[in-house]
Request: fold
Amino acid sequence: MNLLEARGLKVSYGGINAVKGIDLEIHEGELVALIGANGAGKSTTLRALVGLEPPAGGAIHYQGHSIIRQPTHQLIRKGLVLVPEGRGIFGRLTVEENLHMGAYCRSNAKEIKADVQRVYARFSLLQERCRQAAGTLSGGEQQMLAIGRALMSRPRLLLLDEPSMGLAPLMVQKIFETIRAISAEGVAILLVEQNAKLALETSHRGYVLESGLITLHDEARALLNNQKVRHAYLGE
Amino acid sequence: MMTALLTNWRNLKRNPYAVWLGFALIGTALVLLPFVTDAALGRSWVRILDHTLLYIMLALGLNIVVGFAGLLDLGYVAFFAVGAYLYALLASPHFGLHLPFWTLLPLGALVACMFGVLLGAPTLRLRGDYLAIVTLGFGEIIRIFLNNLNTPINITNGPQGINMIDPIMLGEFSLSRTHQVLGITFSSVHNYYYLFLLLTLLVIFISIRLENSRIGRAWVAVREDEVAAQAMGINTRNVKLLAFAMGASFGGVSGGLFAGFQGFVSPESFHLMESIMILCMVVLGGMGHIPGVILGAVLLSMLPEALRYIGPLEEALFGRVIVDPADLRMLLFGLAMVLVMLLRPAGLWPSPVRQREFTRHD
Ligand SMILES: Nc1ncnc2c1ncn2[C@@H]1O[C@H](COP(=O)(O)OP(=O)(O)OP(=O)(O)O)[C@@H](O)[C@H]1O
Ligand SMILES: [Mg+2]
Reply:
């Protein structure tokens, strides 16, 4: 069964149709890439999936139930979690306070504490800086924090919006390693990326979004060999 | 030196006896304060103390909206007005109603709460400057309504205001009379002082509890980044409404107390300038930090009164008044605020979170 399934999803801003009826599905534990040019509607799609943008049409099913028009805070309790574009960390709160915010919807203090330690084990850098204001972290550290914070809500499906944006190559590698590790632990991931090559090499399947429409979808390896994709997104 | 003091202070804070001793000392000081003030500065200063307590409640109420949730509200005095007029209408000869204090107090909180939601609901999507303008308009609308609701049906008695409001009665005990207890004379301003003190402590207690609750954390998240707060699973709409409602309820309580204390209310008391004054208390003291906000309220409600001594001081120094004391008073007051904001941009006693914005981490 599909963990998430969108059918004919449409989103418009005023008169502008940003997403024009797309079909998308993600299976349990799968890593799926969504690639496309600037302004193709990738972020809009993710925002609509988690209820941050009201869809103008179409259906979204999560774990077999329709989640259309369900507010974000209810979806997060079901494990559907977005790491927004630009990370959206709480700059004036400390690293640790940020992590605790990620567990806002949970109540078991003991489990939360254990999960904070788990995040620290994954990102030892965050532990060193746990009392530092998050806004003073470097871009890469902030991205780690954003992912760590999302993990605090125990996601089943993690939506990552351009996690490698603005990072140096070494940090990009590290972020992708983390994504692979999280995926290996059974969390399904929908990965939006500008870095199409790395995204497709990491993913099982991929979708190509062009001005609000899905123009291609296939196994990630097939897309990597696709002439059109190579030309448009891999710069060959 | 500073660090040594701080560590000593931290150690002291961990010692339960020291904490209790501290509470006992502060408590005794607060109980004795009106008598000491009366003896040292005169009765009028005890009245200023009473007003200060009302301002502390107001500042703490606004602090929930502005400090905790980060929603700029320039019309906060409206809730003070709602509380005051509710009390005035239901406990005065104006309608011939004389409800008891113990029903008026929670009723004032509740009605102000409702007005808070009324203001909050349409402004949920607004932030910053836009929100400030709408709240400013809301404050003015309330005042203009109070000013004009005397025709065709006389509800608020218009600009004349409402007179002969019942004093606050605790059972048979009228706070407006002088009482002798154990040979000590408690005049009206003393009686009100103790009631206001009690309620101020309650408001402080509620503020602290709120700040450390789940709701408190949600407010912080909304203040820092609303979209991220949503992504954390926070119902930002409800959380913001709750901030408006809670903040308003403190204002309503304070307003009711004000009406009973003064015995007279008129729209004059609820000008935009009052809203700005309360906002200044919050900002100057330390937005979002309860001790700072209390400090701000104390300083800003007392400073203008203290500056009234400028006239006599000028005469004593120069033998005549050189600069109009009223002008000089506002000038010094403004200057003091500008200086504080320049020297301590996060407020006199800022919260750790706001402090972080102004200090570099290396
Ligand atoms: N809040 C908004 N109001 C109006 N138009 C918007 C809004 N957000 C996005 N758009 C428009 O919708 C289209 C898709 O935007 P979106 O942010 O989804 O693109 P994207 O694929 O994420 O691009 P990028 O790779 O640059 O992040 C763009 O044309 C954009 O201008
Ligand atoms: Mg985007």
Remarks:
- Chain A has a mean pLDDT of 93.
- The CA atoms of residues 51 and 72 of chain A lie 5 Å apart.
- Residues 2-233 of chain A form a domain with the Rossmann fold fold (CATH 3.40.50.300).
- The pocket of adenosine-5'-triphosphate (ligand 1) is lined by residues A 13, 16, 18, 36, 38-44, 85 (CB under 6 Å).
